Amino acid sequence: MAYLESKGETWETDLNTELNAAQRARKQPVEDGYAHHVVIGETRARLHMVPFTARAQAHEATHQSILKQMKVGDVEKAQGVPEALAERSNESRERRAALMAHVRAFTNA
Fold first, then answer.
1. Is the separation of the CB atoms in 65 and 59 below 8 Å?
2. pLDDT tens per residue, the chain (109 residues)?
3. Nearest CA-CA partner of 6 in 42, 38, 39, 40
4. Nearest 5 degrees, angle CA 8-CA 35-CA 60?
5. Domain locations in the chain?
6. CA distance 66 to 35
7. How many CA within 13 A on the CB side of residue 54?
8. Rounded distance, CA 74 to CA 98, Å?
9. CB 52 within 8 A of CB 9
10. Which residues pair with residue 49 across a beta bridge?
């Protein structure tokens, strides 16, 4: 949970900084518009990033800023993330890439 809370705080700061810059460029009132929540269920914890103002929602619809915060590729080997989980994620990504190459070869044949 500490890992998700840390990621949420970092992403919230980055997203609000980006939104504030866009608001200044448009000469709009500058206000934060993103928040994060960590929700703990029976079997997993989830990080929710929420654009909670109309300006943040419009900014998100145009720029997809939350998605840009998520890195594609290797899983970070950060505190709180088990090594086995990172390895499984990387193996899954490699299998997916091999499958897509097979599909492309099949559809081009």
1. yes
2. 788 999 999 999 999 999 999 999 999 999 999 999 999 988 889 999 999 999 999 999 999 999 888 876 555 555 556 666 667 777 888 888 888 888 888 787 5
3. 38
4. 100
5. 1-70, 73-109
6. 11
7. 2
8. 16
9. no
10. 36
Give the closest residue to 10 by CA, choosing from 54, 60, 53, 49. Answer: 49
CB atoms near residue 51 (< 10 Å): 19
Quote the strand ranges of the chain, DSSP E.
Answer: 34-40, 45-51
Q: Please state, in angstroms and rounded to a whole number, the distance separating the CA atoms of residues 15 and 21.
A: 10
Contact predicate 39/46, CB 8 Å? yes
| 20: Cβ contacts below 8 Å, ≥ 6 apart | 30, 31, 32
pLDDT at 48: 94
Q: In this structure, which amino acid lies at residue 105? A: A
Q: H-helix or E-strand containing 105?
A: helix 83-108
Residue 43 in tokens: 């079997």
Residue count of the chain, please give it: 109
